[in-house]
UniProtKB/TrEMBL annotation:
Keyword flag Transmembrane helix: yes
Protein name, UniProt field: DDB1-and CUL4-associated factor 17
GO biological process, one term: protein ubiquitination
Any matching Pfam family: DCAF17
Alphabetic keyword roster: Membrane, Transmembrane, Transmembrane helix
InterPro entries reported for this sequence: DCAF17
Sequence intervals crossing the membrane: 190-210, 222-241
Cell division in keyword set: no
One GO cellular component, as annotated: Cul4-RING E3 ubiquitin ligase complex
């Protein structure tokens, strides 16, 4: 006869089962989620305000990455987390040969053993004009690692993620022959170079070239994302290939950073000057094609559940018309043609919601539609596009009346209609998603007199309900370039004016404790 269970043993088993499924009350993740839930409630209170605590101006671009503001081509780093932004580090002005072309913030992975203590802190990966890839401490700017990519045969210019915080891609500018070489009919077959790295610890996966002899003459751009090699063509064609299959099939020899190598008659150290990295993935034949689509301006997106893609038919007259189709069989979804019929200077835009819900966000001048995929009734093989919710701009004081009456009683008829994005009407300029607080943020702008006024609104991501509105104090000129970041309790507005003049405005959350005490 089995012994009876000790008192409380059943509760222990239940706790262990819940812990295995991620339900453990004392788990750090649970505490973090609760804290973010509290922060969201505080942020959306009527008494909570956002105060402009800091403003700066610069003659060079201003960048922002998770609580850090970068000035002077990443030579100056300012923490925006403190009550008033403070300098983390200031490096001497760099020469033109040390100019930084692009940068990515690298954060420590959870639950992994790393070779160096510095790997457990955030770092910044930067790409210089002389083809150096540097890993810098995000807090001090100290150089932690240096990798030399290649000589003058190519100019690397762009950094991107294949898999965020796991696999990084360094892309060259498109290779173009000098005019003198083109005049004597010298042919340039290599269009782009791609170098791929695993990060933390930083390790070299391989380098490959995109050759017109393999992929065709009309290639205009290339990218690697989520394990897919994406090749774009001047005729609007987009082709997808399996990057992992390519690297396995055409890898001539693997190499490790810092190790000596003998390659094509050259002897050197991988990632060291002057040899750099070997081009060890040689594509000698056209790889198997996964998928191809034709879309205006190569606009192509994949997302949703089950998988769908969004394109614009490849004719100029269809600009602003979006087709949502099944990736499985290219079938157009029911109600899958989305057209806002906007009459505006700036086109509407559409994309898959970044919250991984499979929904779609379609943004027009005065309307934001959040769409969802659902099965067609009585037909499980077909999906339809349905409206989840909409957000409408506040245009109560419409200025688009065709007929107006003057103070003297004279009737005046307008001979033209205003555009949908006319500055005198409230118009959506930015839509973003704050994943940690699960809030949809929108920036709407209205021109009042000579000044443009903008406000940042927070909406419930599930239902679209307006929860909070924050006025931005600075004037907003719709002809300038703008970026707005909403990062938990921080709002940051970066503005680019003509003649390379940049401004940064920082707002921080403050609570009116007197009102809180009353409530």
């Amino acid at each position: 006869r089995a012994a009876s269970r000790a008192p409380g043993a059943r509760n222990v088993c239940r706790l262990l089962t819940r812990r295995a499924h991620g339900f453990y009350a004392r788990d750090a993740g649970v505490a973090h989620r609760k804290n973010l839930g509290l922060l969201r409630k505080i942020l959306c209170q009527e008494s909570t305000k956002f105060k402009n605590v800091w403003t700066t101006h610069s003659a060079s671009p201003i960048a922002y990455e998770r609580g850090r503001i970068y000035l002077d081509n990443y030579q100056c780093c300012i923490s925006s987390i403190a009550q008033e932004p403070r300098i983390l580090y200031q490096k001497p002005k760099c020469s033109k040969s040390e100019k930084i072309e692009d940068a990515l913030l690298l954060e420590c992975p959870l639950g992994e053993m790393l070779p160096s203590p510095s790997d457990y802190k955030s770092s910044l990966i930067v790409l210089t004009v002389q083809n150096w890839l540097l890993r810098l401490s995000a807090d001090s700017g100290e150089i932690l690692e240096k990798i030399y990519l290649a000589g003058s045969c190519c100019k690397f210019r762009y950094l991107s993620w294949d898999t965020p915080q796991e696999v990084m891609v360094v892309k060259s500018a498109q290779n173009k022959l000098p005019a003198a070489a083109r005049q004597v009919s010298i042919q340039q077959s290599v269009l782009f170079y791609l170098a791929v790295f695993q990060v933390l610890p930083l390790s070299f996966i391989g380098m490959l070239e995109i050759n017109k002899k393999i992929f065709g003459n009309s290639v205009t751009d290339v990218a690697v994302s989520n394990g897919i090699l994406i090749v774009m063509y001047s005729v609007g064609l987009v082709r997808l290939y399996n990057f992992q299959a390519i690297s396995e099939q055409f890898m001539e020899q693997p190499f490790d950073l810092g190790h000596e190598f003998n390659w094509n008659g050259q002897v050197g150290v991988v990632g060291k000057y002057p040899f750099g990295l070997p081009c060890n993935i040689k594509i000698t034949d056209t790889p198997p094609l996964l998928f191809e689509a034709s879309s205006l301006e190569n606009a192509f997106q994949i997302g949703g559940y089950p998988w769908h893609y969004i394109i614009t038919p490849n004719k100029k007259k269809h600009k602003g018309v979006f087709h949502i189709c099944s990736l499985k069989d290219n079938a157009l979804a029911k109600n899958g043609i989305q057209d806002m019929k906007c009459c505006s200077l700036e086109p509407d835009w559409i994309y898959f919601h970044p919250d991984m819900s499979g929904r779609i966000i379609h943004v027009g001048p005065n309307l934001i539609k959040v769409l969802k995929l659902k099965e067609v009734k009585n037909n499980t093989d077909q999906m339809e596009i349905a409206e989840d919710f909409t957000i409408v701009a506040n245009r109560e004081n419409s200025v688009n009346n065709a007929v107006t009456v003057t103070a003297s009683g004279r009737v005046v008829k307008k001979r033209f209609n205003l555009l949908d994005d006319d500055p005198e009407q409230e118009t959506f300029k930015i839509v973003d998603y704050e994943d940690e607080l699960d809030l949809l943020s929108t920036v709407a702008v209205t021109e009042i007199g000579a000044d443009g006024r903008a406000h940042l609104d927070f909406h419930c991501n599930e239902h679209g309900i307006l929860l909070k509105s924050i006025p931005l104090l600075e004037s907003w000129d719709v002809t300038y370039s703008h970026e707005v970041y909403f990062d938990k309790d921080l709002v940051l507005h970066i503005e680019q004016k003509p003649n390379r003049r940049f401004s940064c405005y920082v707002y921080q959350m403050v609570c009116d404790t007197a009102k809180d005490d009353e409530s």
